[in-house]
Specification:
- This protein is mainly α.
- The chain is built from 4 helices and no strands.
- Helix 1 runs antiparallel to helix 2 and helix 2 runs antiparallel to helix 3.
- The protein starts with 7 loop residues before the first helix and ends in a 5-residue tail after the last helix.
C-alpha cells in the first residue's frame, strides 16, 4: 500500500525536471557561448536523471507505455547532451 508521502525518487525527479526546464530556458537567452553550453549541460543531466527515475517508477507500477515514453526521452536527451561538449555549431551535423 502506498503512503501519502511521496518517495524520495519522486521528489528528485520533480526537482530535476524543474531545474532542467529553468536552465534550458535560461541557456537559450544568454549571449555567452560558454555559459550557454554550461547551462544546457546541467539541464541535460537533470532531465536525463529525472526521466530515468520516472522510467523506473512507471515500469514498477506496470505502466509500460508511460515507462517507454520516458525511456525514449532519456535516449533522445542523451543524444542532445553529447552534443553540448562540442559546442553549438559542431553538434549540428550529428542531427542531419
Amino acid at each position: 500500500m502506498r503512503s501519502a508521502n511521496p518517495a524520495i525518487s519522486d521528489i528528485v525527479a520533480a526537482i530535476g525536471l524543474a531545474i532542467g526546464g529553468a536552465l534550458g530556458l535560461a541557456g537559450t537567452f544568454v549571449a555567452s557561448a560558454e555559459l550557454r553550453e554550461t547551462l544546457w549541460t546541467i539541464d541535460g543531466v537533470a532531465l536525463v536523471v529525472s526521466a530515468a527515475l520516472l522510467t523506473m517508477k512507471y515500469q514498477r507500477q506496470g505502466n509500460d507505455c508511460v515507462a517507454a515514453g520516458f525511456l525514449i526521452f532519456v535516449a533522445g536527451e542523451s543524444l542532445l547532451l553529447s552534443g553540448n561538449a562540442a559546442g553549438l555549431e559542431a553538434s549540428v551535423p550529428s542531427y542531419l
